[in-house]
Amino acid sequence: MPMILVAQVSDTHFDLGARNAERVERVMTFLVGLRRRPDAILVTGDVTDSGKSEQYAEARLAFDIDIPVYAIPGNHDDRAAFRSTLLGESASTAPINHAHRIGDLTVALLDSSIPGEPSGRIADETYTWLHGVLATAPADKPILLALHHPPAYLFSPVVDEISLAEPEKFAELVAGDKRIIAVLTGHAHSSATTTFAGRPLLVAPSTASVLGGLWELDLPDHVMDYAPDPAVALHMIDEKHSLTTHFRSIPMGGWLGVAPT
């Protein structure tokens, strides 16, 4: 199969303020302007800051670009408003799960949010749905799983307290299907890579801010850094189903092609 390029954007936190919206706009402009455009953009949760319909309207406008954008909720989102305003569907509090074929690649996006709680869990109905997706996916083609909450310890004093519950159950599913080439998450506001169930676990950065890790965070100060530029993850899957990921920051000040002196 030809190379597939999937961009991952996360934790956009639309809040009706100009700052976060401008940062996402700059990211989308960067992705649309690439010489090799992504085949799809995955938005792995916390689309909004507080789940308001007006914030989803803001996101819907920003995501209206010439590349397919597939989004799932995070702990800051509201399922009913997410469905009605962002997706244009009937309001419902059921998990928002969806799968897409991108060439030979199957991408399954799982709703790991728990309404009203910061931590995550994959509901039984989501597991039932996912088993159905896996049962109908091509037998010898790659699969990516994406969700908001990381299922592994990231040395983040904030995020590790509100990560995915019952990761062992999810690990059993991932380890049991050789077609799954990686798990993608957000939530951590930090680019991070580790392994989970023998597969890469790739955590996308936030476009809004960077959350400190154990080696730098000093509660209650020095927790969130709003100075860095927004960043994205770029996942490339080649004809051998090998996955390569690059993390890229998008400078708000523009591109500089000459080394400063």
Structure commentary:
- With 261 residues, this protein is an alpha/beta fold.
- Helices cover 21% and strands 26% of the residues.
- It has 5 helices and 15 strands.
- The chain has helices spanning 18-32, 53-62, 79-87, 124-136, 167-175, and strands at 4-9, 40-44, 69-72, 98-102, 105-109, 113-114, 117-120, 143-146, 180-185, 192-196, 199-203, 210-211, 224-225, 231-237, 243-249.
- The strands form 4 sheets. Strands 4-5-8-9-11-10 form a 6-stranded mixed sheet. A 5-stranded mixed sheet has the order 3-2-1-14-15, with no helix packed on it.
- Strand 8 (143-146), helix 5 (167-175) and strand 9 (180-185) form a beta-alpha-beta unit.
- The longest helix is centred in the N-terminal third of the chain and has 15 residues, at 18-32.
- The radius of gyration is 17 Å and the shape is globular.
Please provide a brief summary of the model.
This protein is an alpha/beta fold and 261 residues long. It has helices at 18-32, 53-62, 79-87, 124-136, 167-175; strands at residues 4-9, 40-44, 69-72, 98-102, 105-109, 113-114, 117-120, 143-146, 180-185, 192-196, 199-203, 210-211, 224-225, 231-237, 243-249.
Computed structural class: alpha/beta
Main pleated-sheet profile = 6 strands, mixed
Q: What is the straight-line distance between the termini?
A: 44 Å
DSSP summary, beta strand count: 15
SSE ordering: EHEHEHEEEEHEHEEEEEEE
> What percentage of residues falls in helices of 4 or more residues?
10-25%
Main-sheet strand order equals: 4-5-8-9-11-10
Describe the global form.
Answer: globular
Strand content: 25-35%
Give average pLDDT, whole number. 96
